[in-house]
């Protein structure tokens, strides 16, 4: 069979003509030579003799492109050729944006994007990008480019390529304004109360945001309320393990002793230390407080709640906020998280999860006439 040489071009199209360019070398158009995709040689008919011609001298595979084609069967290189230094996705040398950026093949020439993966690896210390690399546009959890489900879904690193799930967390944050999700992110499947992905107990139980990841227990109180129709439980929540008679989580005597609802939390006598605990380090996962000695000051998480979790919501900064482990606990007009209020207790019904309720003469938040009329403490809530 006759072969194409460098005089007419090294690609032989389906019409039996030699040349260069997409009409000769592209997929489905080229039958032999330096095709972008090599078609199998035709099988001779039985009994029909074939003519053997002396081979035509062709450039060395892997050398500088003689005809503008690159990669393919001959692995021609564009760098140093007269056609342009970049090898496009379709296998042609050039110097335009179409040749040098998206789809540019770094193994066969130069590419404008210096972070494009040259070897199929991605992320890590080199921070190579997969999109347009030629190895596949998705960067898998193991740090390799590809286009399979294993590369593009669970564990796909959105910062270094395309991912099937567009709301997958690219930086370990979750929920909030971006509404990033943790499941399959590579940082851990649970979204903590502080808005970070992880797989520890601190991420997956108390305060875990089930809308943005997996949670171990779904009946833990997300807002400080307990019992009632929703039957939320306090144990393991960031508000405290005891469920008070008013239906609020906490860990004070008012929560854990008289009226404490044992079906929705722990009930016991609370003891406090006369000496303030000393923090031993800065929290790295959102957990804090007396239980582990970690503080929220200096971390990206905020203040330390009564349940031992960092954050910046009213649930973290108000009643029960652990001052020794926080940067800015509220000291005036402190919202009540458990329904306790009034001058004697120092908490208000306004501004927290029970905002808008009245503070009764006995010091509890509510909306009945007993709370809102006679004896209502107007400085600590609404009165009628």
UniProtKB/TrEMBL annotation:
Keywords: Carbohydrate metabolism, Chitin-binding, Cobalt, Disulfide bond, Hydrolase, Metal-binding, Signal. The keyword Disulfide bond applies. It comes from Decorospora gaudefroyi. InterPro entries: Chitin-bd_1 (IPR001002), Endochitinase-like_sf (IPR036861). Residues 67-113, 119-165, 171-217, 223-269, 285-331, 338-384 form the Chitin-binding type-1 domain. SMART domains: ChtBD1. Disulfide bonds join 86-100, 138-152, 190-204, 242-256, 358-372. Its cofactor is Co(2+). One of its GO terms (molecular function) is hydrolase activity. SUPFAM superfamilies: Plant lectins/antimicrobial peptides (SSF57016). This is Chitin-binding type-1 domain-containing protein. It comes from the Eukaryota.
């Amino acid at each position: 069979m006759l072969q194409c040489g460098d005089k007419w071009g090294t690609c032989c199209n389906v019409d039996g003509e030699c040349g260069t360019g997409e009409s000769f070398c592209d997929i489905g158009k080229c039958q032999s030579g330096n095709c972008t995709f090599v078609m199998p040689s035709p099988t001779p008919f039985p009994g029909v003799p074939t003519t053997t011609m002396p081979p035509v001298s062709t450039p060395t595979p892997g050398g500088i492109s003689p005809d503008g084609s690159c990669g393919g069967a001959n692995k021609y290189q564009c760098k140093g050729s007269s056609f342009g230094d970049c090898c496009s996705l379709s296998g042609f040398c050039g110097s335009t944006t179409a040749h040098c950026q998206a789809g540019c093949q770094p193994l066969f020439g130069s590419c404008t994007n210096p972070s494009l993966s040259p070897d199929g690896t991605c992320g890590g210390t080199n921070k190579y990008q997969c999109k347009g690399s030629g190895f596949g546009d998705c960067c898998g959890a193991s740090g390799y480019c590809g286009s399979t489900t294993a590369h593009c879904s669970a564990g796909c690193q959105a910062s270094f390529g395309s991912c099937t799930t567009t709301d997958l967390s690219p930086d370990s944050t979750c929920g909030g304004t971006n509404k990033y999700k943790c499941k399959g992110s590579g940082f851990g499947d649970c979204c903590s109360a502080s808005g970070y992905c992880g797989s520890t107990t601190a991420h997956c139980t108390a305060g875990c945001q089930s809308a943005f990841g997996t949670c171990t227990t779904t009946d833990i109180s997300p807002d400080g309320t307990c019992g009632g129709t929703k039957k939320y439980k306090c144990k393991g929540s960031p508000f405290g393990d005891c469920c008070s008679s008013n239906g609020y989580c906490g860990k004070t005597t008012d929560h854990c002793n008289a009226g404490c609802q044992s079906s929705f939390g722990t009930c016991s006598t609370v003891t406090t230390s006369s000496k303030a605990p000393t923090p031993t380090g800065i929290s790295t996962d959102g957990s804090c407080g007396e239980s582990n000695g970690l503080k929220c000051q200096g971390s990206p998480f905020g203040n330390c709640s009564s349940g031992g979790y960092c954050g910046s919501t009213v649930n973290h900064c108000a009643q029960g906020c652990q001052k020794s482990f926080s940067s800015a606990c509220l000291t005036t007009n402190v919202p009540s998280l458990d329904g306790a209020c009034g001058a004697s207790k120092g908490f208000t019904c306004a501004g927290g999860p029970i905002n808008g309720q009245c503070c009764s003469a006995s010091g509890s938040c509510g909306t009945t006439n007993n709370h809102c009329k006679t004896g209502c403490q107007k400085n600590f809530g609404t009165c009628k």
